[in-house]
Write a structure and sequence with these properties.
23% strand, 4-stranded antiparallel β-sheet, 17 strands
Length: 544
């Protein structure tokens, strides 16, 4: 924890008031502008009912949002994850070329081998397609592990080597004469019968506790409802924000393990969390609302907040970027930091606005339209197969109300003619089919993902090769544009963030395996890099 207690220089009430004002403004913006679209898009992705269902009518749901998001995702992931080359740092001079290459190799190793890059990027990109933007957090994580190891029959030399290892502490030790070594040493030397007897060798049975501490650069996906930012942010770069806050539910025990000594009854505002419904909607199940007291006080869930904001802590007239950790209005820690540790990718950029447009946003109306058309078509089919019938009073109504295949209808007459007559059905399928086809073409124009891209068009062989090629080329350009947007708005920022994180926090030389060779790298000697490119391979010899 940081020793700088800025709260003593600036009134804690002043800081809390500032944070509350920024938080309330950001939450209101989320609740009114972003949350409704995100909840709708998730419901549409999962094919949930949309509230327009009617009893005894078709309730089929079109899954256009699912088709679009999961259809576009492979084309966007492939350029980034088909190889382990995510980033290329540029040298600032000829003599810096080897160092820049080493830094490139190590960052690519960290992102691909230590951070499950494919899964992280898959969730990151899906968030952007579904929720307007995707959020990735990068941080330095200290992993402390403790294990107990037992050894028997160690010699003096072996014991000395064991305890020299860092973090090894002897808990139990039993020493006794090493009979095997003694027998070997007691063999007389014919050439020197007057040799002096050697010191009795000892063997050792020991139990040691091994404590290991290792820091690593890690990346994590952040759910959109846990992330707040100032509503007037006018660029796509989160580093330009004046207020950013992550809100996550943690148990009191977890917070104590982080080094914060908080009481069991700490005041908390988790029950007023306005995006709790979005969290429930995502998990699609009932969960106990955080903040409720349980029998286990240490297991109580509270809303843990980490804010990054520009604030004049030391009253020198200049704002500093600070990180403030708190639960409710209880400030746990304040410290100055180098940067806002989040990288954001955007699906479709809106000029002069942080939150753009998601692909799911433009597909959702198409899903509504196709759902309505599908239901009308199926209802029409049902009405033809179970058509209404005009009957006279000589027909048994119980037989008419039951409509099994090959069923019998009893008629109180010599003939059934004139006593039961079906209503003339009207098929509307021929009118609906072109409308459904048109809706699909609108979806393709809006997203850039076509049925030709996924091989879904059974009639493509009947179209000219040139025409299909042009359609696929145009769709590929749309995917390339979106991939380039991802690279520029978030991926590049993530790589620079990881580079700075490793440079600032590494305490020793690292060894990693590169191209079947072990390579030594010392991040403490790295330059501060600002010139870089993000490799987005689009085929042999092709890159963005």
């Amino acid at each position: 924890m940081n020793d700088n207690n800025y709260a003593e220089k600036k009134s804690s009430d002043d800081i809390t008031s500032y944070l509350r004002a920024e938080e309330d403004s950001a939450r209101e913006y989320q609740q009114q502008e972003l949350q409704p679209d995100r909840e709708r898009n998730l419901n549409y992705l999962l094919g949930r009912k949309n509230g327009t269902e009617e009893e005894n009518r078709s309730q089929v749901i079109s899954t256009d949002v699912w088709d679009a998001v999961n259809g576009m995702l492979p084309s966007l992931l492939k350029p980034f994850t088909s190889t382990d080359d995510y980033v290329q740092f540029q040298p600032v001079a000829a003599e810096d070329e080897e160092a820049a290459q080493q830094e490139t190799d190590y960052i690519n190793f960290v992102i691909s081998q230590k951070n499950e890059a494919f899964l992280r990027f898959s969730v990151w990109f899906t968030d952007a397609l579904l929720n307007k933007y995707g959020i990735m957090e990068y941080l330095w994580e200290e992993n402390n592990t403790t294990s107990v190891e037992k050894y028997t029959g160690l010699t003096d030399e072996e014991l000395a080597m064991l305890v020299q290892n860092e973090g090894v502490e002897i808990e139990e030790q039993t020493s006794y004469p090493d009979e095997f070594t003694m027998k070997t040493q007691q063999q007389p030397d014919p050439a020197n019968p007057q040799q002096m007897p050697q010191e009795t060798p000892m063997a050792h049975d020991v139990t040691v506790r091994v404590r290991k501490s290792k820091g690593e650069a890690k990346i994590y996906n952040i759910p959109p409802e846990e992330f707040l930012f100032n509503s007037d942010l006018a660029t796509q770069n989160i580093k330009d924000a004046t207020f950013v806050q992550r809100e996550v539910y943690k148990s009191i025990s977890d917070i104590r393990e982080m080094g914060f000594n908080i009481p069991d009854d700490i005041d908390d505002d988790a029950e007023d969390f306005t995006t709790f419904s979005e969290r429930q909607n995502r998990h699609d199940s009932y969960r106990q609302k955080p903040g409720v007291h349980t029998d286990d006080a240490a297991g109580k869930m509270v809303l843990f907040k980490v804010s990054h904001c520009l604030y004049d802590l030391n009253s020198d007239g200049i704002t500093e970027l600070v990180r403030i950790t708190r639960v409710g209005d209880n400030i746990l820690e304040i410290e100055e930091v180098e940067e806002i540790p989040y990288s954001i990718i955007h699906c479709h950029v809106m000029p002069h606005k942080f939150a753009g447009v998601a692909s799911a946003d433009v597909v959702a109306p198409i899903q509504d339209l196709k759902t309505s058309l599908w239901r009308q078509a199926l209802d029409n089919v049902y009405s033809i197969n179970s058509n209404r019938v005009f009957v006279s009073n000589k027909v048994d109504l119980d037989d008419m109300l039951s409509n099994p295949l090959g069923g019998i209808v009893r008629v109180d007459s010599d003939t059934a003619h004139g006593h039961a007559m079906p209503a003339a059905p009207t098929s509307i399928l021929s009118a609906l089919q072109p409308m459904i086809e048109y809706a699909d073409s609108v979806k393709e124009n809006r997203t850039g993902f076509t049925r030709y891209s996924s091989g879904m068009d059974a009639n493509s062989l009947n179209k000219t090769a040139t025409g299909v090629s042009k359609i696929m080329e145009a769709a590929a350009q749309r995917m390339e544009l979106m991939a380039r947007t991802f690279a520029e708005t978030g991926v590049k920022d993530l790589m620079l963030g990881l580079h700075g994180l490793i440079k600032r926090n590494s305490v020793k030389e690292e060894v990693f395996r590169l191209r079947n060779k072990w390579v030594n790298v010392d991040p403490r000697q790295w330059r501060t890099r600002t010139d870089m490119t993000v490799s987005v391979g689009l085929g042999t010899g092709d890159s963005l």
